[in-house]
Amino acid sequence: MIKSLEFIGPMATVEGWRPTNELPEVAFAGRSNVGKSSLLNRLVRRKAFARVSNTPGRTREINFFKVNDTFVLADLPGYGYAKVSKTRKAEWLPLIEGYLRASAALRGVVQLLDVRHHPSEEDLQMFDFLAEIEVPTIVALTKIDKLKPREVAKRVHEIAVALRLEDDQMIPFSAETNQGRDDLAAALMSLIEQPSWRAAPTTLELEPDEATADAEHVEAAPLEAPPGDVA
Length: 231
Ligand code: GDP
Hints:
Elements: E1 5-11, E2 25-29, H1 36-44, H2 48-53, E3 62-67, E4 71-75, H3 86-102, E5 106-114, H4 121-133, E6 137-142, H5 149-163, E7 170-172, H6 181-193, H7 208-220
The structure holds guanosine-5'-diphosphate.
């Protein structure tokens, strides 16, 4: 249940300002026209995203929204729009990648794909990046009302195979019928409730004894023969 939604500001460049945030953050990514504003409007039951995202100058920025004082939604700029020139196209990547690498509050990414289309080169580039940083990712397949239910099931599987994901990592969604909205909200809540994947345990957390034993073990390991000793 969404009680409040507040636009807390944009981030325009990798090194630029972004709103400070202590709350868990989830980012939404997808190519232009995939249906991201429509999905976000349905998710939070407000028209705020369409308004902010359609403001001239805002479309190339990451827009941050605080929801219910419990989490922050980062609306990433839509990428790969056909009418955008090649140079302009390349701008989305550094901003999005820089943000995803640096945001300490980030818990996960919701990646949107149009259920009717095979993932584009940019979609695949985005997926490779998400896999590289190992951020928990959910895939929402948009505009399912445009296909028959049987075709949707087939496309879900085909896209899962193409992305090497499980079918249940895909959430079929329609902003037209609102189908999939509750599944998406539940998946989003589980991302928010998880601890950050970045907080991997380090050797500093080892008990002193274990740390010493480990160091001794390393020293006791057989050394590689120096080059030249091999007959
Ligand atoms: P964005 O650029 O990713 O924010 O995409 P929009 O949300 O603005 O949607 C792009 C177009 O697709 C608009 O014309 C929407 O009305 C349409 N659209 C978005 N979601 C759906 C959907 O679930 N079903 C149908 N039939 N059309 C949709």
